[in-house]
Amino acid sequence: PLDISGWTVLITGASSGFGWAAAWRFAELGCKLVLVARRTDRLRELAAEICTKYKEARVHCAPLDVCDVDKIESLPFMLPPEFAQVDILVNNAGLALGKLPVQDNVTANVLTMMQTNVSSLIVATATFSKGMVARGRGHIINIGSIAGHEAYANGSVYCATKHAVTAFTTAARHDLVGTPVRVTCISPGFAETEFSLVRFGNDTDKAAAVYSNLVSLSAKDIADQIVYVATRPAHVQIADIICWPTNQAGATNIARVG
Ligand code: NDP
Ligand code: 8X3
User: Fold this and answer.
1) Which keywords, in A-to-Z order, does the entry hold (predicted)?
2) Is residue 24 part of a domain?
């Protein structure tokens, strides 16, 4: 495997779910971490826990709203010098808001999903890929979804954003083909995180129903995949990992037991 110890990894959406779990795995590998999300308290808690477990860990919290794309563009200039040269960008921050038929889409939610899942990822990629190309090493890891490979009823906007992530990731790989920079998409099915709580406005019953009678993927499962793609030998570029829970074979094809 590729030794990425000492590499700087920037993870958006590190305050929960996949991002939180991935931060632990990269810390374990001796990477420097830049943690991005809106909830400052969560980022600081994660940074403190990591630094308690790994005494040599180097962690920087950069609390911001990724929809504020000006802040993303200026991040390389705002980060402390030891964290400013990002080698691995994990574009993970994302969300779904609601599950409604197209005629009921709420414009404010549409814009939030498009900005969070798509625009911010595109801007972050432009912002950090330049340095990766110049330094001759780097990896852009975009968290897509099975919703980026199939579209399902009442998920029009979320599916559109994740299809955009799939397409953008492929196009970025074409653009960077002559460089050592790798571009990867990770496309999970149902994973139990705060995702459904956010989607259903903190309705715990609705969120729990998504994962009921199903052994869903966990954040750790996805962190494994993120670290797996990042540590392949430099000549190996994983394009996409599409991964379902064993009892899910499609967005709406789920075998629930019990
Ligand atoms: P969580 O809700 O647990 O985590 C989402 C993360 O995104 C949080 O850290 C949140 O931080 C951050 N985030 C959301 N909006 C913003 C924003 N405007 N600015 C900065 N950070 C933001 O969900 P997951 O871990 O499951 O989701 C991570 C990614 O995985 C998303 O892109 C999601 O679409 C995708 N995904 C999830 C699946 C699932 O079933 N769970 C399956 C397939 C893909 P904060 O609120 O502190 O800002
Ligand atoms: C999250 C999984 O099936 O709700 O991306 O789209 S799903």
Assistant:
1) Oxidoreductase
2) yes
